[in-house]
Amino acid sequence: MKLSALPGRIARSLAFRTRRANHWLVAKIVFTTFALLQKLPADRALNVSDRLARRVGPWTSRHRIAMDNLRRAYPEKSEAECREIALDMWGNMARLGVEYVFLDKLYDFDAEQQTPGRVEFKGGEVFTEMRKRRRPRIFFTAHTGNFEMFPIAASSLGMTVASLFRAPNNPFIAQEISQRRKISGNRMVRSKAGAAYVLARILHNKGNVGALVDQKFSKGIPTTFFGRSCETSPLVPRLARQYDAEIYPVRCIRLPDNRYRLELCDKIEPPRDARGQIDADALCQMINDIVEGWVREYPGQWMWFHRRWG
């Protein structure tokens, strides 16, 4: 081994150890906070975390990204209006984190219940109709409200959905979230090399898959979002085209008093080319337009701090 190679290897090793130590420290702080919140009733824990996040969030680097994205998306809004949306977003994200702790207790939807619970489900007739036919299906959603609830809802209603997800960069937090997600009873497919083949096999067997579709995807299909150019993952449109899968939008909306509405929309009719096949590029834009409509309706419930436009 050349001596000249040692400094570079040592530097990389130190950088790795430093990054891992930082991840461990951040995870410890997060887990300790969640452990303390878990001692509170769910409603109080959610409200406390919301208030805390609204104070802490604006001091983070992610807040600057969120504000920049809001200015791009809403050039007509004032700085104060953009800040208000960003604060709502921080409250939403804090609630999402705490909800992982209480997820098995918060989800109380029962199709037979006579009185409204914490979770209401809109689109039950769509679900009933689809259960009559065995077809490959794709459910897509966005980082809005509590996007983790639909797999639980599907499982509680007797449908298995294999959900594609991207793990957090912090490996310690990723492991904990992975454990929490297992309570849904559904299969989780990590977004990495080979994930497309897993989802393709499920659709080939007339199964159901779910995916989040609102993140930046390098070398994706050129599209627009809020009128601005961005790149979108072609995975869902290409799988839909290959297996002629039915496509359903689904979302979660936060309601007052720590309640939730899950909405399963009618299946969309994707654009098709002259040969009758699904036009993947046009479908990407169609999905973006649907998600944009959701975000415009409840802007404070969307994750503004990721770099959607590069």
UniProtKB/TrEMBL annotation:
GO biological process: glycolipid biosynthetic process
UniProt lineage: Bacteria, Pseudomonadati, Pseudomonadota, Alphaproteobacteria, Hyphomicrobiales
GO cellular component, one term: plasma membrane
GO terms of molecular function: acyltransferase activity
Entry's localization field: Cell inner membrane
Transmembrane segments: none
Key words, A-Z: Acyltransferase, Cell inner membrane, Cell membrane, Membrane, Transferase
Pfam short name (any one): Lip_A_acyltrans
Keyword Cell inner membrane carried by entry: yes
Annotated source species: Mesorhizobium australicum
Protein name: KDO2-lipid IV(A) lauroyltransferase
Signal peptide residues on this chain, from the entry's feature table: none
